[in-house]
Write a structure and sequence with these properties.
The protein contains four helices and no strands. By secondary structure, it is mostly helical.
Length: about 140
Amino acid sequence: MTNRNTPNRPNTYSLASRWRSLAHAVRGIEFMLKAQHNAWLHVAGTAIVIVLASFLQVRLEDWRWLIVAIAMVWLAEAFNTAVEYVCDWVSPEWSGVVRQTKNIAAGAVLICVVAAVFIGLFTLWPYVELMIDRFRAPISI
């Protein structure tokens, strides 16, 4: 089997090729952060969730839900970026089909964000409630 981008070189497994693949993936994430201003909202949201969950001392089993929610949003944003980039490359002129395609991809991100917000609320609320109860408790000296 040969690689489509390098037709004369067979695909072989090597540590060097895995590092190159990782470097390509990192460049893709960098491109997403440069091309999509909404990705920076996801950076802020991710940071807020991580700091809040750390402050609330969230248990490991609850961290799993938060990690899945964060990953779900980032995955949707990455696919949205890829769809938008390919659409712009394939059809640089205005197109109703491209517009709808981009709207659908953006809608997928919105669905994931809304779901992630609910996951975050359901996961973190018991910890917030516990903290509120601790502040309400009478102080013993």
